[in-house]
């Protein structure tokens, strides 16, 4: 008998505790992104050195999509919605959020709130199914006022760059949530135990969400950083001149949040970091940082030294 190769892979789901909050990181897939345009102010020799030292792919950057569900006891909160199945604008390697929620024992209909770090396609298009209906029919969608203004601006529909299709898709993704979209100002507390931090730059209103329970903290950072090696070692590198609304401001926001998590002992979740995206940013003592990702473990424990 010849066994048929399946040629599929799925990181699935990963559960962890923050105080009394039960968190589940969920894999929506990954973006297969070439190096073209990435980190345009990077030194090419330094980038090649890091590729070699850390055994990174030579011709592409795999960026995972890691939405997270947080069970706060009284509310089920989702941070970002992935790319979903509504669009293949970024390729066909995404759209696994719903099946991985099911595998993790989570029902999209039970989600009370979706917190959006920002409204780029790989974060917001997963709000809807292929037919345009809501994936999370009972949820409110919370997004910063500034980000909502940028990505629902009708003026974008007359542009000739990426902002036109991205805005068209965002408007469509938000449509079934009309009347349930809640806007907040950066820096506000959006829920008891959940505060926001400005990481503006990649988009005009990008927010990070800091969850705290029983003295434990985790921050969900969206696209403040995109890569677990390049960004901590070189926070001054811009991500992409075409897709960052303000590249210089984005680099500064990245440095600011790295400094804050180190100073305050906050666990870091990188949306595009290797699944499950969870770990620690630690200072290297020379103004740079390193990423120490959590070891995947079957044990569910609130003890960070497990």
From TrEMBL:
<keyword id="KW-0479">Metal-binding</keyword>
<dbReference type="InterPro" id="IPR036866">
    <property type="entry name" value="RibonucZ/Hydroxyglut_hydro"/>
</dbReference>
<feature type="domain" description="Metallo-beta-lactamase">
    <location>
        <begin position="64"/>
        <end position="272"/>
    </location>
</feature>
<dbReference type="InterPro" id="IPR051013">
    <property type="entry name" value="MBL_superfamily_lactonases"/>
</dbReference>
<keyword id="KW-0378">Hydrolase</keyword>
<dbReference type="InterPro" id="IPR001279">
    <property type="entry name" value="Metallo-B-lactamas"/>
</dbReference>
<dbReference type="GO" id="GO:0016787">
    <property type="term" value="F:hydrolase activity"/>
</dbReference>
<dbReference type="GO" id="GO:0046872">
    <property type="term" value="F:metal ion binding"/>
</dbReference>
<protein>
    <submittedName>
        <fullName>MBL fold metallo-hydrolase</fullName>
    </submittedName>
</protein>
<comment type="similarity">
    <text>Belongs to the metallo-beta-lactamase superfamily.</text>
</comment>
<dbReference type="Pfam" id="PF00753">
    <property type="entry name" value="Lactamase_B"/>
</dbReference>
<keyword id="KW-0862">Zinc</keyword>
